[in-house]
Amino acid sequence: MNTETTDTTSVPTLYCSNHPQKPTLLRCNRCDKPICSTCAIKTPVGYRCKECVRSQQKIFNNTKSWDYPIALVLGAIMAAVCGLVTLIGFFTLFVTPVIGVAIAEVIRWATRHRRSPTLHKITVLGVALGTAPLMLYDIIMAILWLNAGYGLWNVIAPLVWQSIYTVIVISTVYARFPGRK
Fold first, then answer.
1. 140: which residues sit within 8 A by CB, 6+ positions away?
2. What percent of the chain is predicted at pLDDT more than 70?
3. What is the pLDDT of residues 47-66, one digit of tens each?
4. What is the spatial distance between Cα 49 and Cα 29, in angstroms, rounded to a whole number?
5. Lowest mean pLDDT: which of 10-24, 25-39, 49-63?
6. Residues 175, 110: Cα–Cα separation, whole Å
7. For residue 104, what pLDDT band results from cuts at 50, 70 and 90?
């Protein structure tokens, strides 16, 4: 007696709606569109396509008009005050990322965790503006010290550490602060 059964119901092969050459078994759990693993974005409720995630994020752009000056001024002041960390020289490399995270988190707290792409840009601009006076001061001092006959490393060391601080703190705030899309 033959107990072998054959399955006559076969599942049709689905192809990603963005990459028609990629077969897939995934579907967006919101719009039911077939998506490949490259297009799938993991969310707390399952995998979604980029379009659904993007449209959902627009709902969360909830910035108030007063958040922009708060982010600009607070970012500039904190970046300028914390820029004094460059006086410790080499250890600036290790302390600056922590400062960048702290600046981003303080601004997030001050704006009540509201988000938007414009708020993200204003925050980064504020941090950049806060580091500019320190950079300008170090450039002027380097020119004056070179004319006074100081050694080259003694002249450019503060400028090097300030430049490193500026790049790291701006990039950390850029990466850490939400809403950049």
1. none
2. 92
3. 999 888 877 766 667 899 99
4. 8
5. 49-63
6. 18
7. very high
Where do we find the tokens 């028609």? 20
Structure tokens at 153: 């490393």
* DSSP element (H, E) containing 32: none
Q: Which amino acid is at 94?
A: F
Task: Tell me the C-alpha distance between 93 and 81, whole Å.
Answer: 17
- pLDDT value, residue 55: 79
Which phi and psi (to 5°) does residue 27 adopt? -135, 150
Cα–Cα distances (Å) from 88 to 91, 122, 131, 154, 157, in that order, read: 6, 29, 16, 14, 11
Rounded Cα–Cα distance for residues 74 and 130 (Å)? 9
Question: Which band of pLDDT confidence, cut at 50, 70 and 90, is reported for residue 149?
Answer: confident
pTM of the model: 0.68
d(CA 169, CA 106): 14
| Burial readout 91-128 (b: 16 or more C-beta within 10 A, e: otherwise) | ebeeebeebbbbbbeebbeebeebbbeebbbbbbbbbb
Return phi, psi of residue 33, to 5°. -80, 140
